[in-house]
């Protein structure tokens, strides 16, 4: 046995704990070898070698010698030599990154075949057609992957032969036709590249290794990594493995198996099997596979052995396992295993059932699910209607429901998505090149493939609705239409509805209904296995989390729903939303007031309306904190649009004097950058009586609730403070009003007064601000804008897509907190504030309060609570619990 080097390890030398070096596939092969499973022998070229190659453009010193040594060991173990004319050894060359990237990088099978060894393979196997087919496959894969030939040229040649035969796929082609294809493919390679296909098997091997290295930086791989937040600097391992053949006849085949249903989590054996085929045929969807249960009838002994192996793997990995296998003339070989991708529903059910069986403990079960998955489970599904008749049915590959217009390629999906349209991507089968379209679309529909096809695996990982293998559909991408079994033509732009749970496709838009999970989260009552699993996970998360989870809510109705969804208070009640609708006239009167008396009258009219709002919200959250932010946005936002007013006045025969007043006010208050202008605390100081009116409404609402026997806990928040002097002035006025209401009603009022930290200066001077603040609430939306120096609305519509594409942003800083910049300001403010006021309460009320990765940061930063929209509360509770578990990060998922 060779000695391990930093660049090459045989399968007998690695293990599952070496995924960073050997990649997930290599680590899995090594682990299965240790377990004594039937794994074809081989070796792994490490990710370190890949990184060196990508950085320097050359193989690292010593790699060639290490590969040669490992190959010699493999030849001795197999009793055959690579490419030998008599009974040759053939190998596969497969990628294997640390994190699963299905279909994103390259695979080349049958390395070692050439014009001489193909004859030896035919003689040794006794099957001329098999040998020629294997050579054809090598030429096709090597030509496309290594030599850069357009894959469509090979497909066209195959299509011509199958059409001449009147067949639907290449399985019907005989040995002579395969031999003819081999010569055609060699000619295509020569014509397109100016060089012949290499006959030297060692050249084939080394060029294949380099091609797999290079595929790490292919466009589709980069797109996938951005989508899945996988770092770009990891590199891929390369696995060289002795070939075993599933295309040797009816007693051979290839398949993919799951130890549980990856769509639902139900225990059992699930997967696809394709007789007389090589491994790539199943995931490529070239022919529709049969359910794995058919293997029980085709090869009972193999089926039983496979079941034993699957149980071994699930018991060892303590999780759902995804296994690729080949049957070669009745003998089972395991080619790969990994912890399988699963839908959100399956993730929760599997974690719950493994916890119930004692396989994993409660903490590990919680670590295996995440907030993004829970949010997906809250999406609507189709309403059941007996009048709905599906126009097609396929394999339910990724559950959920989606409605959209039909598109047939990634470009159309992206273009329509950018215009705000929901789309359904329809393909015969997807390839990794379809990834941008799958990201843009709401659903994916294919006429070929099964639960383990590329479309199914990628869609499940993204949480996209997917139906595969709707084989009665005739998909014509050139004509941009598909035809249903009934002969109905569906063109690009027509609307369809896709049910990924049942596998059905409907014409038109089918009504949607709320998910069972969404309902059970409000009632707390389980209705089935999935809801029991969700409620169990949330209960444990609530028991271990340190962070409180509050809601952003502005109405009694929102507050009541938030409480049902587990909110422990309101972290942000925005008073500006109470100034809209039929109250806009009163706000206009306040703005247009020509003297103090008129302004006071307008404020006096607004007072009872705000008091009523606050009373209802305090009642809904009785006994829990309600943080009420005083008016924050600029006043012009409550006035009509400047251009609309000007047009209305210019076009009116008899202009309304009131419109003239409004336009004059809009002109007077116009600012080039209003988000950095007269708003927040500045507005409260500039408009006499505005702060007092709102504080009085809050105070009187508290008094009213106390009189009703309630337990109101109102907190008053001053927005956009940049200096302690602003807070001092606003707090003085606030406390004066509270004292007046308390004295006038004979009531003791306890309303903490704090501030929002949403400007870099506030964060940097937080120690001084904390002298006058009872609490800090981080407004991370504005803090992100002011730290980055950009406008969210403008930036997201202009250069954000470019920045995401080029990797400047791994994710939008408005969706996931920029921990290095904005996060550092949060840490500085918390540390400085608590140095002055050790018991200072700190929370976050921006959109980041509901983002899983950001919640983990807020936990580490020592905040007391996060606040988010009611819909995101369950996910925030779950992530706050996961954040409390050692070793779990916001990017982890099952």
What does this structure look like?
The protein has 894 residues and is α/β, with parallel strands linked by helices. The chain contains 36 helices and 31 strands. The strands form 6 sheets. The protein has an 8-stranded mixed beta sheet. It has an 8-stranded parallel barrel with strand order 24-25-26-27-28-29-30-31, surrounded by 6 helices. Helix 17 links the parallel strand 15 (423-427) and strand 16. Helix 5 (128-145) packs parallel to helix 7 (175-193), helix 19 (516-523) crosses helix 20 and helix 20 packs across helix 36. The longest helix is centred in the last third of the chain and has 25 residues, at 596-620.
Summarize the structure.
This protein is α/β, with parallel strands linked by helices and 894 residues long. Helix content is 46%, strand content 17%.
Structural class: alpha/beta
**Tally of helical segments:** 36
Shape: elongated
In the predicted model, the low-confidence regions spanning at least 5 consecutive residues are: none
Largest sheet descriptor: 8 strands, mixed
Mean pLDDT: 89
Percentage of residues in strands: 15-25%
Strand sequence of the main sheet, in spatial order? 12-22-21-14-15-16-17-13
Helix content: 40-55%
CA radius of gyration: 32 Å
